[in-house]
């Protein structure tokens, strides 16, 4: 599967079946090539400073507004009402969510979302939600659109094929992908599938500042990948369903064509994916332990300098070399929410049947930890 590399770049792509589909010299000509419709998808206010201004131009067969009205849809276990349960200051843990058996119940990505925790709310455009998805079926004639914020998706079991308006991405365990606010996408699975989602409201994920680390290190921009243009001109007589997450609730509408009819596009507001094995670890080689912030892959900044709405952090395999330092990292208390998940997939030397043993015997050398905070 083909991709373009870079983070936040100005990309351009057109499906090779329609050469010359990208207009030359202007974004919205009176008549687009092939009779396409020009649409701009904005990920920021028009007047944002240039470094923070996010938008892409899409050239599609039919306009995305051509659908029937949205109506309320069942939310299942998806919520942002944090008052449903009483506050609990204790550390919490739980067994993996079970994946439904296909012969008993078919569950796709949209219906298999379960909210774990969160803070803030989408209405005020400030906060996060942490979800788990469990599914055993692909989304058929259906797509999902998040009007509340960005989804950072972390597959844990089973690869997922994500079709977006910008093209396709195959995302496997040990990879992550980000579907930014307002982008329509559909998820195909190939068996029992489970993973995690970090949702942020009111901000987009960006690379952390490197400071004295210098110009290279951690997640390098060149290792991020975004899809190339791909389209389908498909009429759906039985109706195509668009699920929209809006202010914490789900709504659905119908249309008679596939929304993945974008023949060409250009801009800097795109979905993207990243392979975690490309993360260049910075570690201690003298004494003591560096703070875990040196393992930040992506961050969603708040309005307070140096304070994030959420950080996505990993502890990948690395050499732990230090003098006069106890091997486990130091204990610490903090004011941030921490959601930690362990993965067996980041290291081939951990066979599934040896996972528990490995984590117990080497619990301070986890081969993969995901932090949402």
TrEMBL record:
SUPFAM superfamilies: RmlC-like cupins (SSF51182). Residues 278-335 form the Homogentisate 1,2-dioxygenase C-terminal domain. Keywords: Dioxygenase, Iron, Metal-binding, Oxidoreductase. The active site is at 289 (proton acceptor). Fe cation binds at residue 332. Its EC number is 1.13.11.5. It is an enzyme of class 1 (oxidoreductase). This is Homogentisate 1,2-dioxygenase. The lineage of its organism: Eukaryota, Metazoa, Chordata, Craniata, Vertebrata.
């Amino acid at each position: 599967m083909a991709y373009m590399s870079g983070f936040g770049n100005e990309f351009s792509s057109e499906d090779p079946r329609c050469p010359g589909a990208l207009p030359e010299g202007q974004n919205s000509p009176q008549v687009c090539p092939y009779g396409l419709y020009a649409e701009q998808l904005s990920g920021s206010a028009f007047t944002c400073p240039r470094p923070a201004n996010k938008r892409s131009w899409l050239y599609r067969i039919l306009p995305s507004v051509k659908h029937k009205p949205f109506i309320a849809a069942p939310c299942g276990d998806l919520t942002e009402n944090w008052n449903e349960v009483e506050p609990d200051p204790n550390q919490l843990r739980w067994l993996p969510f079970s994946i439904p058996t296909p012969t008993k119940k078919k569950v796709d990505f949209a219906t298999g979302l379960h909210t774990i925790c969160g803070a803030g709310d989408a209405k005020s455009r400030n906060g996060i939600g942490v979800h788990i998805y469990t599914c055993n079926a692909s989304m058929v004639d259906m797509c999902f659109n998040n009007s509340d914020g960005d989804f950072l998706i972390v597959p844990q079991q089973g690869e997922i094929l994500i079709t977006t308006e910008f093209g396709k991405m195959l995302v496997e365990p040990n990879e992550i992908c980000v579907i930014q606010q307002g982008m329509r996408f559909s998820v195909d699975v190939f068996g029992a599938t489970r993973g995690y989602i970090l949702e942020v409201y009111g901000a987009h994920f960006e690379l952390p500042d490197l400071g004295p680390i210098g110009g290279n290190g951690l997640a390098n921009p060149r290792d991020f990948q975004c899809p190339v243009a791909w389209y389908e001109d498909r009429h759906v007589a039985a109706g195509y369903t668009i699920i929209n997450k809006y202010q914490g609730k789900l709504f659905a509408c119908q249309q008679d064509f596939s929304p993945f009819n974008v023949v060409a596009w250009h801009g800097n507001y795109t979905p993207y994916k990243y392979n975690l094995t490309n993360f260049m670890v910075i570690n201690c080689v003298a004494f003591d332990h560096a703070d875990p912030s040196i393992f930040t892959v992506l961050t969603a900044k708040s309005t307070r300098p140096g304070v994030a709405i959420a950080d996505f952090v990993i502890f990948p395999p690395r050499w732990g070399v230090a003098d006069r330092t106890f091997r486990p990292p130091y204990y610490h208390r903090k004011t941030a929410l921490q959601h930690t998940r362990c993965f067996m997939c980041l290291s081939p030397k951990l066979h599934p049947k040896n996972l528990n043993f490995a984590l117990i015997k080497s619990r301070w050398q986890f081969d993969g930890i995901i932090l949402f905070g």
